[in-house]
Amino acid sequence: MRVLVVEDFQMLREAICQGLREAGFAVDSVADGQTALWQAQSNQFDVIILDLMLPRLDGLSVLKQLRAQGCMTHVLILTAKDTTPDRVKGLDTGADDYLVKPFEFEELLARVRALVRREYKAKDPILRVEDLEINTGSRTVRRGGHSVELTPREYALLEFLALRQGKIVTRTEVWEHVYEFHDDATSNVVDVFIGHLRRKIESAGLPRLIHTRRGHGYQLGGKGIEEA
Question: Which CATH superfamily is domain 2-119 in?
Answer without folding.
Answer: Response regulator (3.40.50.2300)
